[in-house]
Amino acid sequence: MTVSHVISTDTQNLNKADCFSSQWECAWFIILSSSFFLLLFWAYFWLVAQNDFSDFNWLVYNHSGEWRDETIPILTSTTVGFSYITFLLILALFHISLGQQLNLYWIHKVGVLATLLTTVSGFVSVNDIWGDEWEIILVSLQFTAPFLHIGGLVTVTAVSWLVAGYVVRKERSNFQVMVLTIYILVLLTLCLAPLTFTCPCIMDRHVLKPPPVIIGRRGAPMLAPENTVMSFTRALQHGANSLEADVTISVDGVPFLIRDHTLRRTTDVSKVFPSREHEEASSFNWTEIHSLNAGHWFLESDPYWTVKALSAKDRSRIGNLTICSLVEMLRLAARANSSVLLNIRKPSPDHPRFRSWFMDTLWTLQKAGISQKKVTWAPDTDRGRVRGLLQTTNEKLSVNEIRHRGITSVTLHYRKISYKDIQAYLANNVSVTVYPVNEPWLYSILWCSGVPSVSSDAPQVLRKVPYPVWLMSHSAYNFIWISSDLVSVAVVMGIFFFQKWRISGMQNYNPEQIMLSAVVRRPSRDVNIMKEKLIFSELNNGLGSTEELSLFPENGLVRYSHGGLSC
């Protein structure tokens, strides 16, 4: 067996081992990167979904029957998992940039897999309970897209250092071509992405309409228990121009305010009427309803994390609250010269007031002394009976259908209405109210879209938004967009040229030469093998006319010269 055959066999074995190791490390890097992007999307979703945390907890309550804030463990686990995966990914990128393998410890591999599986299970659970909420991603892009575009360009530009270092190597492979092609496509897509953006706040300042009217949805439920006199009072004090309430008819014909079908969540019915806690709220008479406490649950569950900020006086008042009747809320609105939006739940056919609920409600409006022009009635199913009152629909209808029904306003969830829909309604003199709007970013989008009014659980927050969070003219944004694209492309090209120059200089060095310079100067089998590799490497590559390789005889090495081989 010749020395060259030994060297060739040994090199093949080493390459196979390196290739196998690299494949596994490449797989783990893909898993780590996938976990990062999945968690990034998950974290972004919960960031923008803060607008609807109350609705999420309410849905969980309807599924489980127990009221608890499920957003706390979700936010905690998301923060921990995202921080952990981001830290590992940064370390991995540093390793790769230095030409080293990833070499994750087994405990980190377990941690990455556990984080990935937990996130996937979270996606499945949210899709089951709260599947409609995914649409908030598209809505939020109307606000965040310009900033995500800049962030994406910065990230892709930074990654070009690693991509360039990989694809400009002397060796060429199909995988390198694929990596380069994917990178160019991603960069090109990012550069052209603004062509697809629909951002209402990219507009001229002089066409910005007045801010939307703020409607206190169930009052100000972050400051006091929902649908109570104190909640409606707080809403008016914090700038709400109108009030919205959920109306139910009691068994003896008294309209009162409650969101749920039962009294379990917002009263102490389980203590006062333990055998009836699962019964419909409309099955109680007003005397029974008025005897229930409607404030203790708020102090105990703290649904909006605001109880600690309340004064001792406010806590005492909340602890003694009772369910609010419709006439109390209407009188409060009349004194404040405020309008109201009533979401009326019609009794079931077997309810004693099924045939008279309309007259019960109408009589209450007259008793409260509020002007009928100040009252908007929903839904619009009793158009023939509701005369003199404004009516709104909770359905997304065409303009022709709205005209046919004889109504002049729509009240829609923000997920059900687009910018084009808003413009179409407004162009046909149809008033639009959008709910729920609790975050400044969503309020800003709707303001720029020209929405006349929004219904909010947080009027005290929206009152502090005197102007859209950001507003930019088309010319200014086009300048930022094109400039950032050009700078990114220029930097990427510079990085590719620099990496090619750097690596081309390094390719003149033989790996065995570099290793020999670092080994201890003493004979060993490994050193001898390395010498033989160097000899045949130089013979295969050929020495120039002026090249000379000297390996010192006194150290057991051989000497090359231009004339031949000497030992």
DSSP helical segment count: 20
Largest sheet data:
8 strands, parallel, barrel
Q: Using only CA atoms, what is the Rg? A: 35 Å
Helix content: 40-55%
User: Which residues form runs of ≥5 with pLDDT under 50?
Assistant: 1-21, 543-567
Tally of DSSP β-strands? 11
The strands making up the biggest β-sheet line up spatially as 1-2-4-5-6-7-8-9
Give the overall average pLDDT: 86
End-to-end Cα distance, whole Å, is 21 Å
**How does the overall form come out from the CA principal axes?**
elongated
| Oligomerization status of the protein chains | single chain
Helical/strand content category: alpha/beta
Strand proportion: 5-15%
Organism: Xenotaenia resolanae
Family: Belongs to the glycerophosphoryl diester phosphodiesterase family.
Protein name: GP-PDE domain-containing protein
Keywords: Glycoprotein, Hydrolase, Membrane, Transmembrane, Transmembrane helix
Structural write-up:
With 567 residues, the chain is α/β, with parallel strands linked by helices. It is built from 20 helices and 11 strands. Mean pLDDT is 86; it is low at 1-21 and 543-567. It is a multi-pass membrane protein. InterPro entries: GP_PDE_dom, PLC-like_Pdiesterase_TIM-brl. It is found in: Membrane. Keywords: Glycoprotein, Hydrolase, Membrane, Transmembrane, Transmembrane helix.
